[in-house]
Amino acid sequence: MRSHEALQGAMWMARDYGLSVNIWGRGDAKLGDGPSYMGMAIYEHGSSTCELHHIRNPTDDNFIYDPRTQPLEDPVLKGRCELACLSSAQAQAQQATSLLATFGNDKTNIPEFGVGNCQDWVAGAVGVLERAGIVVVSSGEEEGEFWKRMINRSSEEMKHACLATGRKWIDGPESTWEGEPDARFGDGEKTPPVGKLVQNEAFRARMQSLSLSRDNAVERPFYVSSPFFSNSNKQTSDFEGGK
Description:
Elements: H1 4-14, E1 17-24, E2 37-44, E3 49-53, E4 55-56, E5 64-65, E6 68-71, E7 77-86, H2 92-105, H3 118-131, H4 143-150, H5 155-164, E8 168-171, H6 201-210
Antiparallel strand pairs: 1-2, 1-7, 2-3, 3-6, 4-5, 7-8
Helix pairs in contact: 2-3, 3-4
Region (Disordered): 171-193
């Protein structure tokens, strides 16, 4: 009789697509980080690209839903938690894409800037897929509720929680980057130079500005851009705004 692990592996290989929560940035508040960035990825097994469903804040006062095609891995990806195997024969991948698009395009599901963020949106999106039967409860806890518990945790804590509950975690590429990826994803701005942040004058100046009160306004944390998220990088972004 084949082991449980072997049966799981065979079932995984029999499927065509994967669905995961992708996490960027350390997100450790104890070290002064802002929250890790999160999005939902759908990808064909063996492909180097994915369809990313996420929200971002291009104007520092609101979030927008902005699905896009991009590399599955990039230098600042901390890791991903794989939630489901999707069968093209049963049109599960198309159904998941449609549900995420419907959820994302409904502005009532997008958190208010300064109140929630991409992590809240991901937890809600996972709940939608769970109720549709695409994501199946496997650890005794509803998947949407699990990701609600992950809000504001560091990426390392998320990793440990995923592994401790039997979820499938895949580490991201090795990287010397610290901090978080840019939720603006370029937007035509000049990409900041890549390097250690302790040597980055722009980073230090931004951190100092965040420590000052400005009429009690809520200000977006400083993020480090991932080159794969830049709208101007046509080689790594196949469509804009869900095209």
